[in-house]
Amino acid sequence: MTLRIWHQSFTVLEDLGAYNDAMAAHLQRVAAPGTEIVMHGMRPGTYRSDYPGHDIRHIGLQYLHSMQFVHAGLQAQREGFDAYAIATLPDPALRELRSLLTIPVVGYGESAMLTACLLGARFSILVFISEFDVLLADNARRYGLQERLCGVSDVGFRFNDVLQAYGGDPGPLIERFRAAARREIARGADVIIPGEAPLCVLLQQQGVTSVDGVPILDSLSCWAKHAEMLVGLQRQGITASRKGIFREPPPQERIDEVCAFYRNFP
């Protein structure tokens, strides 16, 4: 099966050097034969620095920036991509995009949570944007997985620490991750989701797949496999629901009109 997946990051990939290269290598490794995952990031200049967390820790700014995800999804469909995959933990505009697109739409956070439920009874998420705790708990509730969520906690280091680890010695950071994972395991988690994609890629690069017998989820692999699966199902005639306010797509002509209106909005 040949297919193309549009990867959409919440970072400006051109700003991130070694992480961008590591992400590309990881996606190439996890994709099935015949699958092409085409990486896309936010527009250069979206943020004041190479770190999006100063903005996306605020739900209002996250919402405004998520409009880039909507426009990218519409572009992916126009260009004939087979699936659109949101590659960031908070799943910005996931529900809205599923009501606008006819191709499968996959969310990184939702995909990780669903897979965690197949591997264990309860999962925890470790993050370096601590404000995500409330947002992710709310997402788990909306996905119907609230009872399976053990906790969301601060991993104890930040985005820039992870970026530096790509070009230096990741050993101390890995040990801090293991300590944070053990705290969640002690609370009852039997699957750990390593939060944001930069941390996920680093852990996979360093071969960290479990802590004390508890799996450390490769969320990006789950995300890619879910996209491939949904494309395969759609090709067999099994498609997403198209009923109700969250799923019924508006006419394409009206989508184009509204997008044109807001492009000219003062």
How many strand segments?
9
Mean pLDDT: 94
Task: Characterize the biggest β-sheet.
Answer: 4 strands, parallel
Q: Tally the structural domains.
A: 1
Shape: globular
> Which percent bin holds the helix content?
40-55%
Query: Which fold does the CATH topology refer to?
Result: Rossmann fold
The spatial strand order of the largest sheet comes to: 2-1-3-4
* SS content category: alpha/beta
Radius of gyration: 18 Å
Q: In DSSP terms, counting alpha (H) and pi (I) runs of 4 or more, how many helices?
A: 12
List keywords for this structure.
Aspartate/glutamate racemase family protein; 49% helix; alpha/beta; Asp/Glu/hydantoin_racemase; Iso_Racemase_Enz_sf; Rossmann fold; 14% strand
Task: Characterize the structure shown.
The protein is an alpha/beta fold and 266 residues long. Helices cover 49% and strands 14% of the residues. The protein has helices spanning 18-30, 53-56, 59-65, 67-78, 94-100, 108-119, 132-142, 159-167, 171-187, 197-205, 219-235, 252-263; strands at residues 3-8, 35-40, 83-86, 105-107, 123-127, 149-154, 191-193, 210-211, 214-215. The strands form 3 sheets. It has a 4-stranded parallel β-sheet, with helices on both faces. α5 (94-100) links the parallel β3 and β4 (105-107). It starts with a strand and ends with a helix.
Strands, helices and their partners?
Elements: E1 3-8, H1 18-30, E2 35-40, H2 53-56, H3 59-65, H4 67-78, E3 83-86, H5 94-100, E4 105-107, H6 108-119, E5 123-127, H7 132-142, E6 149-154, H8 159-167, H9 171-187, E7 191-193, H10 197-205, E8 210-211, E9 214-215, H11 219-235, H12 252-263
Parallel strand pairs: 1-2, 1-3, 3-4, 5-6, 5-7
Antiparallel strand pairs: 8-9
